[in-house]
Amino acid sequence: xxxxxNLNLMIKAARKAGRSLVKDFREVENLxxxxxxxxxFVSRADLAAExxxxxxxxxxxxxxxxxxxxxxxxxxxxxxxxxxxxxxxGTTNFLHGLPHWAVSIALEHKGDIVAGVVFDAAxxxxxxxxxxxxxxxxxxxxxxxxxxxxxxxxxxxxxPFGGRSTLPATLQDLGRLMPxxxxxxxxxxxxxxxxxxxxxxxxxxxxxxxxVWDMAAGILLVREAGxxxxxxxEGDDILEKGAVIAANAEMFAPLTxxxxxx
Length: 262
Known about the structure:
The protein is α+β, with helices and mostly antiparallel strands. It has eight helices and 13 strands.
């Protein structure tokens, strides 16, 4: 696709960070057998990727604001625009040598996400979207799936870990949804879950307690691919509350009804 200057800048930054992460990922795989473990190494890889992205974006757009997973937010001279960045979504997968993680970059303008990039560097899949211009994976236009029966659909979510308070609600969701559908996947990278909805690989996705950088780019991908996105609790602000439902147009209402327990 022929993207804007900002989108091309985002793609360049994501690719540069992705190359760094792929190199580090090979080292993580080797570290699996060490007694020390790869945790500290992964932290350095994460920080290095964010530094690369930040240098690329701020050099070209020094007036824009910034919010990233690994650094303090910055209020830019231009208060209407900010970058929203997760340099490594799926850190636990990365840590365990699982090749399912991504770089996520979004651009917000006046509270609206106008461009998004999710780069799966391990598989060399670049998902991109710009408001009003559709969604793409590498050089191919992508669309949400056309499935319209719950029993034919595969959905994705994140199952809370480490004693998170949202576990009971998620287990209730699964209890209602799994008997009615073709399956539920938990692959551990929300940005890629949303990108997969956009590409028609999943028919829908929901999760609670996400951060803005986990989902900003992915939400735009789904919308530009013809899907629908809404809050888990009716009336909530998705990015503020961190709870989202996304699906193709046919399955959005049925999935939302199940997740809300209606």
